[in-house]
Amino acid sequence: MDIGRPQRIIEIEPVSLPLPSPDLPSYEPAPEPAPAPNPDPSPVEPVDP
Amino acid sequence: MTTASALRSLEATTGIEPIVAWRTWALTGHRDGSNLLLRPVAGRSRPWRPMQIAEAACKHTRMHASPSLECTCGLHGTHGLDLLRRTRCPAVLGRVALWGRVIEHDHGYRAQFAYPQLVTLICQFCFWQWGSHAPSPDIVGWFTRDALVPLCWAHLELAQRYGMEPRRLLSADEVGLSLRETYGVDQLVHW
Predict the structure, then answer these.
(1) Cβ contacts (< 8 Å) between B11 and chain A: which residues?
(2) pTM
(3) In B44-61, which positions are buried (b, 16+ CB within 10 angstroms) versus exposed (e)?
(4) Above 60 in pLDDT, residue B19?
(5) What are the CB-based long-range contacts (under 8 Å, 24+) for B16-19?
(6) By CA distance, what is A15's nearest residue in B?
(7) Over the stretch B64-73, which tens digit does the pLDDT of each residue have?
(8) Across the interface, which of A6, A13, A23 has its CB nearest the CB of B69?
(9) What is chain A's pLDDT, residue by residue, as a tens digit (49 residues)?
(10) Among partner residues B76, B105, B185, which is closest to A7 by beta-carbon distance?
């Protein structure tokens, strides 16, 4: 295939590569849910000695 | 001024956006349509691997970085479609991103790096005859050496009449979809 004579040279450094991002599943472990806050301790009823 | 010095005095510019050009590929794959690979239509150059940047390498004996001004090596793309109608046995037409060192010619480019952006299967006979007006292929024939050849029904019949008998027929829609998924690119719709 004849594309003719060379006309100019271009040095291209793309900011982002024109490549598809692989659609891979995430292997990062899901963040563990924060521990549920402790329920308020039930009021201790005073015990008669 | 000698030819070599004329070449060396070419204008040189820089850029941050890849150039997008036209290109055709040959296609290979297994009998079930798996393991699809885009390949250069000419010669026995390396295939373009899915999800990997294609990098130019000179197949001639001269050792030089590719593309070189004084050679024809590099990953080719063209400004327009018409030039591609003369390529030998194209199976896939598409738009390709080119970057790195790119040499622009009168009618196209030779580049250091490339990756396809949009692709579509083409019936090579329709493409030769009608260019951008070519209808979509109906089937993909599987031939020896894993060559996959998209054809319309009319040209399949013609090919069979002249002894070009596919060993298996695959659905063009399914192979096209699989090709796009394999390379992570979209369908070339308007061309």
Answers:
(1) 7-9
(2) 0.84
(3) eeebbebeebbebebeee
(4) yes
(5) B16/A12, B16/A13, B16/A14, B16/A15, B17/A12, B17/A14, B17/A15, B18/A12, B18/A14, B18/A18, B18/B97, B18/B98, B18/B99, B19/A10, B19/A12, B19/B77, B19/B97, B19/B98, B19/B99, B19/B102, B19/B104, B19/B109, B19/B111
(6) B16
(7) 899 999 899 9
(8) A6
(9) 889 999 999 999 999 999 998 654 444 444 555 555 555 545 445 555 4
(10) B105
CB contact under 8 A, A6 and B97: no
Is residue B127 within 8 angstroms of chain A, CB to CB? no
Whole-complex ipTM: 0.84
CB contact under 8 A, B78 and A1: yes
Contact criterion met (CB < 8 Å) for B14 and A6? no
Residue length of chain A: 49
Residue-wise pLDDT for B158-187, tens only, equals 999 999 999 999 999 999 999 999 999 999
CB contact under 8 A, A6 and B103: yes
End-to-end CA distance of chain A: 104
| Distance between CA atoms of residues A18 and A1, nearest Å | 25
**pLDDT (tens digit, 9 = 90+) per residue, B107-137?**
999 999 999 999 999 999 999 999 988 999 9
- Inter-chain touch A12–B97, beta carbons under 8 Å: no
DSSP category for residue A30: P
User: Which chain B residues are within 8 Å of A14, Cβ to Cβ?
Assistant: 16-18, 99
B184·A3 Cβ contact <8 A? no
